[in-house]
Structures are given as structure tokens and as C-alpha cells.
Amino acid sequence: MTDHSVLDLETGPSECLHQSELTRRALRLTPEDGIFRSAIAPLSLIRVSKTTPPMPCVTEPSLFVAIQGRKRMELASQAFIYDPFHYLVVSLALPVTGQVIEASPQAPYLCARLDIDLAMLGELLLEYDPGEPLNGNGERRGLYVARMSDSLIDAVLRLVRLLDTPHDIPALAPLILREIHYRVLCGELGHRLRDLAGINGQGKSIVEVIQLLKSRYAEPLRIEDLAAAVHMSPSTLHHRFKDLASMSPLQFQKQLRLHEARRLMLSEGLNAATASHRVGYNSPSQFSREYRRLFGAPPYQEIAQQREATTGNTPASLEW
């Protein structure tokens, strides 16, 4: 298991001031634990006042900026830790496990979560592509941690400031959102986004396959059919998908089913048999086995544990 947190970033005076102001504003805008959607549609603020057990979720393409505290994300047994020195990018819809590992009532975990607009990234690439490949180590996984820059934290702070002047949001928020996307694209690992945001290419095809799996997760699907839908060979699709998502397309579909069944049991109170049938399982025993393998306990036990562990406004199975 790999820890991708590297605490070697020198923090300059301006960055310290930005971080301090962001913390004050986030504390004021999050009066209690929970997820707070803001008046700027892609932006949410999150507050958690204690460390948490691992909580599985399916997260959409997002930028996570930790304002205070630390959080650990796990994808296919690989760990990524982010904090005020590092931001986390999820460039694909992915089933992950999140755990707040540094938080207290006196210093809660605070995070700004921003929905990533792949279309906006594509426009930026068309207009401002530097024309040379960005440096990278060849890894293409759709989740990564990168070092925070002063320019990115400054843009995030300016976006949060707009919440105090709602009349400025329509005119200024789109400009700052565009700047944030640009800063992430030009960041140290921005090369991970280029293929996904491009108009053509295999990365774009993987995004299309994920959308297909999300819309038809309860149906029987074959990799041959998925590959044909995006004009790829089954072997190419399998390898490219695994490079980005750390799992095969059919493993991805299975996890989508299990996460949706878990959501149905947590949010709608369905029993395991009904939830498993709703997401496409014909065998309750198979569902129970696979659920236990993914979440660490049988459905009834794991759901009870999550309800007991989850307090306040913090959901156990949504993106946070």
C-alpha cells in the first residue's frame, strides 16, 4: 500500500495568510459537521469534527482542497493522503474509500470540494495547450495527490470570498472556476488530465465506458459489448480501463452495484434482499459474499455499524 503524502513543501508567507483566511471563512460557512452546497453550484464545503472509520463512496470527478486536517483516500488498496499542503484530484467517477485521519472539535477537518468540468478542461487544452508534453512518470491512474501551489490556493480563496458577495457570483465565479481548472491542468500532475479532457483518444473512450456502466450497472454487460460501443478491442479496453481505474470494467460494474445497494439500505431503509435484487443480483447469497468482501462485513452488520459511527450531518455513503 502506498502513501502518496509528501510533506516537503515550503510554505511561503502569502500561502500561510491564504490558508488562515480560508480556515476562518470555512469555519463560519460550516456551522456544524456536514456537507454544505454553496451558492456557487460546483463548490461544496465540508466539515468533520472527529476522525472517522473508512467510508466507501463513489465519487465524481472532483478537486478536493483540504483547508485543515488530513484525509486518506483509498483506491484498489492504494492510499492517497491529502492535507493543506496537497490537493487531491479524482478525474473519473471512481469507487473509493475515504477516511478523515486528522480532525478534532477544536480543529475540524475542513475541505473545499469542487466538481471538475471535463468540458472546460477540454476548452482550455484547445486554447492554451503548451504544445509540449507535461512531465510525468507514465502512471495514468484517475486519482492523484499533487502539491498545493500559491496560485491555486489564492484562486480557491477568491472563489470562497465570493460567497460573501452573492451579487458578484454570476460575473466572477465562472472566471475563477476557469482559472482553478487551468491551475490544476498546469500542476505537477496535470498530464493525468490531458487525455481524459481531450476531444478524442482512448481516455475519452474510457470516460464514455464509465458513463455507460453507471447508466446500466444493473444490466448484464459483456466487455465485448462495451468495447464495441467505443470502437476499441476488448483487450485494449481492459488494459486502458485498468490503468485509469485500477480495476477491470466488470469489477467496476460490480462495485457500482454494491455501492448503490448500500446507498439504498442506508438512505431508503431497504433490506438486503430487496436492495440486491434492485441492483441486478439474482442470488442473495452471492450478494452477501461480495458485499462482505468489499465492505468488510455482511450487509446488515455493516449498515448497522455505519449508522452507529455516523453522527451529525455527515453521510456514510455520499461523496465527502
From TrEMBL:
<dbReference type="InterPro" id="IPR009057">
    <property type="entry name" value="Homeodomain-like_sf"/>
</dbReference>
<dbReference type="InterPro" id="IPR018060">
    <property type="entry name" value="HTH_AraC"/>
</dbReference>
<dbReference type="Pfam" id="PF06719">
    <property type="entry name" value="AraC_N"/>
</dbReference>
<feature type="domain" description="HTH araC/xylS-type">
    <location>
        <begin position="207"/>
        <end position="305"/>
    </location>
</feature>
<protein>
    <recommendedName>
        <fullName>HTH araC/xylS-type domain-containing protein</fullName>
    </recommendedName>
</protein>
<dbReference type="GO" id="GO:0003700">
    <property type="term" value="F:DNA-binding transcription factor activity"/>
</dbReference>
<dbReference type="GO" id="GO:0043565">
    <property type="term" value="F:sequence-specific DNA binding"/>
</dbReference>
<keyword id="KW-0804">Transcription</keyword>
<dbReference type="Pfam" id="PF12833">
    <property type="entry name" value="HTH_18"/>
</dbReference>
<keyword id="KW-0805">Transcription regulation</keyword>
<dbReference type="InterPro" id="IPR009594">
    <property type="entry name" value="Tscrpt_reg_HTH_AraC_N"/>
</dbReference>
